Amino acid sequence: MTTIRRIFLGYVVIAMLLGAGVAYATRYAYTPIDYTGATWTQANGINDSGQIVGLYYDASGDHGFLKVGTAYTSFNYPGTGAIGTFASGINDSGQIVGYYIDGSGYQHSFLKVGNNYTRIDYPGALVTLACGITVSGQIVGYYSDASGKTHGFIATPNNLTPIYQLLLLD
């Protein structure tokens, strides 16, 4: 056997072994997440404690949920104008971000800490959607401006006031 042929066969064996390792890396154990009584359920975020947030739809509309262990807690953005609530992220402190739809059909983000909600809107935006939150409280998401263009943003808590500083990621 020639040296070139041995080297080639060695590469083939290595490639097969590496390929087999990738195949095993993609195997998962799946657990269904279904809110009782919902037509459909969507899980969107999980923290290191295994708390899961998402949304579900039932006969009365769209609602956010928090799943801790086997217990589900439903929540809706407070006020009479919200017609749908969507939870998209949770950090290790249990702070939840998401968005809701108002009576005019516009989407606004929120930060939920316990039972308290803070509305998060990018200045001048028609639509603001929060997608995730870090343990330090930084919120990432996207917004649409008056021209219809979509931009990313990061909102960093300002420790001097309860107002969030919003930075454009574009």
Plain-language structure description:
The chain has one domain: 6 Propeller (Neuraminidase). It is about 15% helix and about 45% strand. It is built from one helix and twelve strands. It has a four-stranded antiparallel beta sheet, with no helix packed on it. Strands 5-6-7-8 form a four-stranded antiparallel beta sheet, with no helix packed on it. The chain has a four-stranded antiparallel beta sheet with strand order 9-10-11-12, with no helix packed on it. It is globular, with a radius of gyration of 22 Å. About 5% of the residues have low confidence.
Low-confidence stretches: 160-165
Q: Quick one: how many beta strands?
A: 12
Which structural category do the helix and sheet elements fall into? mainly beta
Q: In CATH's first tier, which class applies?
A: Mainly Beta
The major β-sheet equals:
4 strands, antiparallel
Net shape: globular
Annotation field: number of helices: 1
Query: How far apart are the first and last residues' alpha carbons, in Å?
Result: 58 Å
Biggest sheet strand order reads: 1-2-3-4
Mean pLDDT over the residues: 85
- How do the helices and strands follow one another from N- to C-terminus? HEEEEEEEEEEEE
Q: Provide the helix percentage.
A: 10-25%
Radius of gyration: 22 Å
Under CATH, the homologous superfamily reads TolB, C-terminal domain
Could you tell me the CATH topology label. Answer: Neuraminidase
CATH architecture: 6 Propeller
Q: How many domains make up the coordinates?
A: 1
